[in-house]
Amino acid sequence: MQYRKMGSLDWEVSALGFGCMRLPSRRFSLMGADLEESKRIIRYGIDRGINYIDTAWPYHLGESEKVVGETLKDGYREKVKLVTKLPVPVVRKTEDFDRFLNSQLEKLQTDYLDIYLLHSLNAGTFEKVKRLGLIDKMEEAQRQGRIRHIGFSFHDTYPVFKEIIDYYDWDMAQIQYNYMDTAVQATTDGLEYAHSKGIAVVIMEPIKGGTLANPPAEAVEVMNSVAQERTPVDWALQFLWNRPEVATVLSGMGNMQMVEENCDSAERSGINSLNQEEEDLITRLAEIYREKILVSCTGCEYCLPCPEGVNIPHNFAILNNVSMEQSRIRRFQVRRGYKKLAGTQEKLDKENPNGNGSLCVICGECLDKCPQEINIPLELERAHAILGKRESITKYYS
Ligand code: SF4
Ligand code: SF4
């Protein structure tokens, strides 16, 4: 494992961090985590040198923190920096802070967190943080020894990011960044600005919710055109580790193969380790993806559950895959995935909601939950027109 500077903190962090948002799922469960398999793969990652574990209140509908708590028994807690997040979007009053933190410490079976983050800050939630005095509560918890360091995770635009960075002396900022998203969310400017102030920058969505792991044929051709053989995931990760501003890269790993491959990649990583030809190749890959991706869904599942049973990210994944496939046969095969989704309430699997876009009643409940600010009902309507009624993509996307 390679280790890197963690901003101004006096510890070194593994190049790869374990994100516990996409743990192995239990069979027949949409979001429930499989404890034994999760424990096995997280402990394997720690044995390979991962020393940073990231979770949050809502991951796996509250089960992720419990799974992490169980996993870190038997001496594993002492081997890692443990990070979780105050669920700011659902905090209603100042007193909620202690209720959440106490419950999280209990679930995680620990007395302290190495870093506690304000989860999912944007212009709106940051106003709430100020109005409810949540940074004062953070400092109080720090004085009490319940948290060691203070940070935030972020989903909005660069001006908002800069305003938040300048507001407080943060230890850490967690941003969405990958080779496709250099000009959206915090952007490269935000990454460099936070780093220039000595703040550790932790990266989430390095593979853009799995999108960069499944390249269209044109991107595969480009990857095959250079001597350096890498998997699509390795290209995406090395792009990040190449940058001196990045502290650690969180990968939401859901099976043992992912952990093994990502640990192998991390061992090969280094700042400024890519040559000009490789950097140019990544620029070309980003251009190809930007032409193909129709909906910028990362599959985070924050929008679920939908009261009508629509599996929102699955609808968008099928739409993007149809757009990325070049061969007619493959497009046909991907489209068949849409046919397997339920188009009526009677056909809906209540245990594992699998509705297609036609079930959306535009209630709007999911809208404020999407960190990518996707107009979910509109995009579902388009997805259904293209995938269900076989209308052309160009009618809706130029
Ligand atoms: S707007 Fe549509 S997709 Fe969103 S929660 Fe309501 S019914 Fe579900
Ligand atoms: S639609 Fe938005 S909230 Fe839902 S999975 Fe995609 S990115 Fe996440």
What this model shows, in words?
With 398 residues, the chain is an alpha/beta fold. It has two domains: 3-276, NADP-dependent oxidoreductase domain (TIM Barrel); 312-396, no CATH class. 41% of the residues lie in helices and 13% in strands. The protein has 15 helices and ten strands. It has helices at 35-47, 63-71, 96-108, 123-131, 134-143, 158-167, 187-196, 217-223, 232-241, 256-267, 276-292, 312-324, 328-339, 376-388, 393-396, and strands at 3-5, 12-14, 16-19, 52-54, 81-86, 113-121, 147-154, 172-176, 200-204, 246-252. Strands 3-4-5-6-7-8-9-10 form an eight-stranded parallel barrel, surrounded by seven helices. Helix 7 (187-196) links the parallel strand 8 (172-176) and strand 9 (200-204). The longest helix is centred in the last third of the chain and has 17 residues, at 276-292. It is globular. The mean pLDDT is 93. One iron/sulfur cluster (SF4) is lined by residues 306-308, 310, 312, 360-366, 376-377, 380.
Could you write a compact summary of the structure shown?
This protein has 15 helices and ten strands. By secondary structure, the protein is of the alpha/beta class.
